[in-house]
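Team,

Forwarding the record for the chain on the shared tracking sheet. I've put the sequence and predicted structure together so nobody has to dig through attachments.
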Amino acid sequence: MFEVRKSIRRYRDDPAWTYRKKARDYLATFDRGGYPFSLGPQGNGIHDLLQGNLRGQEVYLFHLNAWRRTGGSNRATVAHKFSVAVLPLPRVLPATAFTSSRLSWCAQEWKLPALPRNAGRSTDLPNLGTHRVDCCSVDPAFAALINTYAMERLMHKACMGWRIEENRMIGWTQGRKTYEELLSLAETLATVIGDFPEQAWHWPDTRGT
């Protein structure tokens, strides 16, 4: 935790970055029906939002408190902590979520959705790829197109998940990470995006179907 606080101080004072302690307006731009926001059925809170540039593109890094009720008679509400990086995409793509199996167990245990309902009818794809990564998509053919063993190995090693929400990619992992670790997460996301085949960027727009 001390390393996280030191990291926040370093980047908060760096003029190349814009820092906000809380950002309810930015939180409101996400659909809370998909990972990692759906992991907080009782609400979410963004903390330590950092905005800047990575590889010439805008990037957002933040910590997420996902509030969930515990079991038992006292019904206490606790915050499960995640770290999130958000990168833009060149265009809107089909809603798709890839989640490392090292992360997805917590969501499966609580039966929480990977994708928002209003993104369209989604399909779990247990036979796509390997057991290392779970996938869900509104367009299984698109998910199969972008899936590779190299991507799955990268995600599994990083213990991360990501999903496409229109024209941005949301990457996440468990715990409250330093900004250096979050930048590494964003770099991994950029690598995943960069490895999408050219056909992905010409995929039919499925909105409204």
